[in-house]
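Section 4.2 – Deliverable D4.2 (structural model, holo form)

The reporting period included a commitment to supply a predicted holo structure for the target in complex with iron/sulfur cluster. Inputs used:
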Amino acid sequence: MELPAVLRKAREKRFALTPQEIAALLALDADADLAALFRSAYAVKCAHSGKNVSLRGLIEMGNVCAKNCLYCGIRRDNAKVERFSIAGDQVVRMAEWAYRERYGSVVIQSGEVESDEHTEFVAAIVRKIAAFSGGELSVTLSLGEQRGEVYRYWREAGARRYLLRIETSSPELYRSLHPSDHSFRRRLECLRALRELGYQVGSGVMSGLPGQSVGQLANDLLFFRDLDIDMIGMGPFVPHPDTPLGAGTPLSAELRSRQLRIGLKMIAVARLYLHDVNIAATTVLQALAPDGRERGLLAGANVLMPNITDAEYREKYRLYPDKPCIDENAGQCRGCLSLRVAGIGEAILWGQSGDSPHYLRRCGNRADIA
Ligand code: 5AD
Ligand code: SF4
Ligand code: FES
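Output (structure tokens):
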């Protein structure tokens, strides 16, 4: 592969890379090659959204989960986790804080719960946020797999965006990461249902998984294209000691740097291939290196999701070890991230909902359906 020529082609036009070229870019390892890759991705990001970062305030609403994903620290069978569910009014208060502080959007995330009571609980929160902000604070839900009618109900209540990671586009790899009653097919059907309901849809995968190849990661990026995904939140796998997949794999310095590297490469190649989607520099990058999220931005990401959950709950929402910001409160994270963003010469888009340019384009810039 002639790297400069491949990078030039990728910068000029989206979808220009072949699957083989995507895999080859993901396999790059020399520092100079990686620097060139990240620079190219950053240039594409700047062409689409300038030197700007969109913020989403992340509310970790509860860690009760019906699922048992083999990698996740809050999986059902992890008895060491003390479970919590934040009261609806308190969730709304966190969103009010975000609105006052000029976050354009909030993400409400929790473990997976499917019940009529939970459906109503979430809808009530979404309605209250829409009411106090006059619809200005855009709400993203990240509450796992649900029936289509539940997604519809939440959409009607005012939710505009939904995040549901596919984790891997390989059904075989998916099977090796989940118990047999977790269904790849249902995950896919949920993503399609969300799209049909008019949500702005985000998905994502983990990179650096045991047994994962660059070919599979390349397919993940093709999958985002095929599903016409608007937003991407993805990050490297970090072994959690109290999970089947993480037990016995200590997080050595060498492993940290390897996982960070593959995480950054996925961001960069996603940007070079897809061009106009929103891509988050996810918190997990900062679990691997103190400046991990800034490095994600410089590799082509354009979204940050500062945690705005009250400090008392953060410790208990630990999907992976070394989660940052456990002892900080929302105000501290706001200040800290502002400085970090300024430190790399970027500006935060305060008070803007930060719709995915891809979404606006696919909807013909129709504000009425956003
Ligand atoms: N390492 C990295 N990411 C993880 N997630 C869950 N457990 C881990 C882990 N050990 C991610 C999954 C999930 C999201 C909420 O967090 O991709 O969808
Ligand atoms: Fe539950 Fe999500 Fe963790 Fe799976 S990854 S156990 S669905 S919180
Ligand atoms: Fe939370 Fe830095 S982002 S303390």
